[in-house]
Amino acid sequence: MLLGLSPLRAAAPRFIRVAWQPPEPPWVKVNIDGSFRNQDQAGSGGVFRDPSTRY
Known about the structure:
Blueprint: E1 29-38, E2 41-49
Antiparallel strand pairs: 1-2
């Protein structure tokens, strides 16, 4: 123990499986993401899906 502190053990990571589910009609789901490298380099994209997984 140093300065009244004791080391804590980190909890083991838990993995949760997640699967995409289509939206309820008449809704549309949107997934967007973006990134940047420098002040002059950036990118973004997106996906729209309806209940039939079209678009």
